[in-house]
């Protein structure tokens, strides 16, 4: 067998409920499966998506699909892991060179705008988020993501506030990320004009807290 079970890397979390391909041909097949699932979720939502539809759209047998993804939850998990990795790379790149308050204001604002824009534009991301809220293991994946993102922000805060209590900085950063996710999800649940105001209000609140001792 050319696959191995993929495990979540951090926080002592539960293993991902799917097999991770190790050969190029298998990886390409999995990419087709995930692309097919994303298209179906965009069209009809994950609740309505059927495994047989994913296999047919991806051009693979149902047995091959089940080899890598035992159920729909495993597909949602894989998509969540992908979005998590992409977001962490984006956040890391945006914050790594921040050296003063103005840099942080600009980088934080731009990151929140990107996150908000993705939720507005991508129904798959919204659907995956909904799935994480109803599944304890998926929720743990999201929580680990928030902690990882908070660490990028902690590194910035330590540069800007070197005399601050590091535990306080970690708590602040983690809470800011969690509240930011909640703010964006609230923003997409109301009309666009109100949503925009909510996001801007959150930016102001968060930056006041982040920079209060700078």
Structure commentary:
With 214 residues, this protein is mainly α. It is 74% helix and 3% strand. The chain has nine helices and two strands, in the order E-E-H-H-H-H-H-H-H-H-H. It has helices at residues 24-44, 51-58, 62-68, 72-95, 101-121, 123-134, 136-160, 166-187, 192-210; strands at residues 3-5, 19-21. A two-stranded antiparallel sheet has the order 1-2. Helix 4 (72-95) packs antiparallel against helix 5 and helix 5 (101-121) runs parallel beside helix 8. The longest helix has 25 residues, at 136-160. The chain starts with a strand and ends with a helix. Residues 1-15 have low confidence and may be disordered.
Give the helix/strand layout.
Blueprint: E1 3-5, E2 19-21, H1 24-44, H2 51-58, H3 62-68, H4 72-95, H5 101-121, H6 123-134, H7 136-160, H8 166-187, H9 192-210
Antiparallel strand pairs: 1-2
Helix pairs in contact: 1-2, 2-3, 4-5, 4-6, 4-7, 5-8, 6-7, 7-8, 8-9
In short:
The protein is mostly helical. The chain has 9 helices and 2 strands. 74% of the residues lie in helices and 3% in strands.
Question: What labels would you give this structure?
Answer:
mainly alpha, 214 residues
Taken in chain order, the helices and strands follow as: EEHHHHHHHHH
Secondary-structure-based class equals mainly alpha
Nearest-angstrom radius of gyration? Answer: 19 Å
Our estimate of the beta-strand percent is: under 5%
Which of globular, elongated, flat, extended, rod-shaped describes the shape? elongated
Summarize model confidence as the mean pLDDT. Answer: 84
What is the count of β-strands? 2
Largest sheet: 2 strands, antiparallel
Oligomer: single chain
Uncertain segments are 1-15
